[in-house]
Write a structure and sequence with these properties.
This protein is an alpha+beta fold and 317 residues long. The chain has six helices and ten strands, in the order H-H-H-E-E-E-E-E-E-E-E-H-E-E-H-H.
Length: 317
């Protein structure tokens, strides 16, 4: 006669419970990046809501299964009976259980998701009230652009209005406590602009514009939460590509978002606009067929623009 339960069943179940608890604790620690956006808490709450509701449903199913294993185990005086599960009671139980799971889990999550999605991707702020930046994704880097002295973006090719735009490769600076509208596009394949600390992600698709709204917290709130800072004491966060975009996909994580106090950001952007205007005055506009390559060299080299570097105070720093 086989044993009713293996001796290892209870220790295995206990170990599984300990591992699940440890994983849950770690999810709120180093495996779950800090919250840098004003609307990120909704994503976190939705995540935990789905996790705990799924855990409760799983535990309930396992408890019923364990009860059946114990109540109907092989033992003297009991004979096994074949059951198809087609009885009225079985069908009623299955239907009620499935309906309860659907109403409690799916409907609740759908309602919560609707509110979170509206907050993340609903009506964007007016451009006059926001900071607007363009991001051009390509293999394998992010190229950011701010409007120049004329206050508008130019095209990437054959557009004189583009020559005064401020550019940066892989470094996105944004003001704190103010929404930033990021316009995304790609020139080669699909990339996915992912900001883990801001709980937001959006695809950059060739041939079309997409956009996201980044809503950073204030620098004071970030400091109080102990969010990461760079060597200059500025809050700096990772930019990742969440779409496999080629052999150099791994290098897309060189992107960074630096959050500055609003006054400091305004001063930085004004200095960049003036530096580009001074360069155009002294050296003429960049040839349009070399527009991006010239600004890439400026960003990488720094120093004298005649040598391909950034003007003093420019983005090459």
């Amino acid at each position: 006669m086989p044993r009713s339960l293996p001796r290892t069943a209870i220790p295995a179940a206990a170990a599984a419970g300990v591992l699940a608890a440890a994983e849950s604790a770690l999810a709120g620690g180093p495996l779950f990046p800090g919250d840098a956006a004003t609307n990120a808490s909704g994503v976190d709450s939705l995540f935990w809501m789905a996790t705990w509701m799924g855990a409760v449903a799983f535990a309930l199913v396992v408890a019923i299964l364990a009860w059946c294993m114990i109540a109907y185990r092989a033992r003297p005086g009991h004979r096994a009976v074949y059951a198809t599960g087609e009885t009225k009671g079985a069908r009623t139980f299955t239907g009620v259980f499935a309906l309860g799971v659907f109403c409690i889990l799916d409907v609740s999550l759908a309602i919560k998701d609707h509110a979170v999605h509206a907050e993340m991707y609903g009506e964007p702020p007016a451009e006059a009230e926001a900071n607007v930046v363009e991001c051009l994704a390509r293999q394998f880097e992010w190229r950011f652009r701010w409007p120049g002295a004329d206050g508008r973006f130019g095209g990437l090719e054959s557009d004189p209005a583009a020559t005064d735009d401020v550019t940066s490769v892989n470094i996105l600076r944004i003001p704190d406590d103010r929404p930033t509208i990021l316009r995304l596009r790609s020139i080669d394949v699909i990339h996915s602009f992912f900001l883990p600390h801001f709980r937001t992600k959006q695809d950059a698709v060739p041939g079309m514009f997409t956009s996201i709204v980044i809503r950073p917290k204030s620098v004071a709130e970030m400091a109080a939460a102990g969010l990461p800072v760079n060597a200059e004491g500025r809050h700096e966060f990772d930019v990742a590509c969440a779409e496999l975009c080629g052999l150099g996909h791994y290098s897309m994580d060189k992107g960074r978002v630096i959050v500055l106090p609003r006054a400091e950001y305004d001063a930085w952007l004004a200095a960049q606009v003036q530096a580009v205007a001074d360069e155009i005055r002294d050296y003429g506009p960049a040839p349009m067929d070399e527009y991006w390559s010239i600004y890439t060299r400026r960003s990488a080299a720094g120093g004298d623009p005649a040598a391909g570097g950034a003007p003093t105070g420019g983005e090459g720093k």
